[in-house]
Every structure is written in C-alpha cells, then in structure tokens.
C-alpha cells in the first residue's frame, strides 16, 4: 500500500483511464447491439411503400396485399441469395485450390446459374401477383414510376433505354412538322 500513498497522482490517473475505458467499451458494445444497418432497410421500405401508396392511390386492402407480397418475396429471395453466395464461395475455394476439378467447378457454376434463374422466376411471380392487385390505371402509373426511377439511377455514360411498347427507331416525342405554305 505504500506505493499508492506515495504516487496519489498516478493512482488517480490510472482510475480515470480505467473508468474511461469501461465507459467507451460499454458505449461500443451498446452501439453494436443496436445494429443500425438492420433498421435502415426497414425504414427505406416504409418510405417506398408510403410513396407507392401516394403515387398509385392504393386502397388499404391493396396496400396490405402489397406489403404481404413484398415480405414473402424478400424472405424467399433472401434464402435463394444466401444459397447463391454460399455456392459462389465454395466455387472460389475449389477454383483456387491446387487440385481444382474443372467438372466440379462447372457443376457448381450450373447450380449458381439455376439459382439465379430461380430469382428471376420469383421476380416474375411477384410482378404477376402485383398486377393482380392493382387496377390498370395504377399499373400504367407504376410503369411510369419504374421508368423514371430507372432513368434517375442510370449512369450518365449509358444510352437511354426505350420503353418496350415504343419502336426503337422512333423518338419518344416525334417533332411536329411545321405547316407547309401553299404554292401560288
């Protein structure tokens, strides 16, 4: 105990540093438990659903059906995406192993491609169900929303993609021909 009585200043500094260490560790642990990344996608989904409801004038029943459809899709998509990730990881392990087997790599690549195809089928199924929920007017408005979002998210160096129902060679808004003058 003689050390503590002689160096009171050092003992106080040690206790202050120990206290700060405990506080900062507790703060970091609390922040890690909160997982803000998990809350952000939910908030974005709520905002996108609210915007969709406002733009399409959805009824309460339509809104609930779309929320249910979206939750089902996300759950199924997540499981397939996780499977694809795991298969790609195993493919990378085999690919860079010294005794890699090409036929095994091709089988794994085929499974990845099949699961990617399953994802696309899920998207098609979701679109079909969505079409069954919305009215024709709402579907037209939704198509305009999708095109606008696509144009906003498209990189500036990429050419504009024409809508499916428009011929490729014609501009979306053809120029009006000025009236011709009569020859006298």
Could you please describe the fold and organization of this structure?
By secondary structure, this protein is an all-alpha fold. It has six helices and no strands. It has helices at 2-6, 8-34, 36-56, 60-95, 102-133, 136-153. α4 packs antiparallel against α5. The radius of gyration is 30 Å and the shape is flat. The termini are far apart.
The first-to-last residue Cα distance is 121 Å
Helix content: over 70%
- Major pleated sheet: none
What is the SS-derived class?
A: mainly alpha
Order of helices and strands: HHHHHH
Number of helices: 6
Strand content: under 5%
The whole-number mean of residue pLDDT values reads 80
Shape: flat
Radius of gyration: 30 Å
* DSSP strand count: 0
- Which consecutive residue ranges, at least 5 long each, have pLDDT under 50? 167-171
Give short descriptive properties of this protein.
184 residues; 6 helices; flat; single chain; 76% helix; mainly alpha
Topology:
Blueprint: H1 2-6, H2 8-34, H3 36-56, H4 60-95, H5 102-133, H6 136-153
Summarize the structure.
By secondary structure, this protein is an all-alpha fold.
């Amino acid at each position: 105990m003689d050390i503590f009585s002689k160096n009171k200043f050092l003992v106080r500094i040690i206790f202050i540093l120990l206290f700060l260490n405990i506080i900062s560790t507790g703060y970091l642990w609390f922040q890690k438990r909160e997982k803000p990344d998990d809350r952000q996608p939910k908030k974005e989904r709520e905002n996108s659903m609210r915007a969709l409801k406002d733009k399409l004038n959805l009824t309460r029943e339509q809104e609930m059906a779309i929320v249910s459809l979206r939750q089902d899709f996300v759950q199924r998509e997540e499981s397939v995406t996780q499977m694809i990730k795991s298969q790609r990881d195993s493919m990378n392990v085999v690919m860079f192993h010294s005794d890699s087997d090409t036929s095994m790599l091709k089988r794994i690549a085929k499974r990845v491609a099949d699961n990617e195809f399953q994802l696309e089928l899920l998207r098609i199924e979701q679109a079909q169900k969505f079409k069954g929920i919305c009215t024709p007017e709402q579907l037209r408005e939704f198509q305009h929303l999708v095109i606008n979002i696509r144009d906003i998210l498209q990189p500036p160096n990429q050419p504009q993609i024409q809508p499916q129902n428009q011929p490729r060679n014609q501009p979306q808004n053809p120029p009006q021909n000025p009236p011709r003058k009569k020859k006298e």
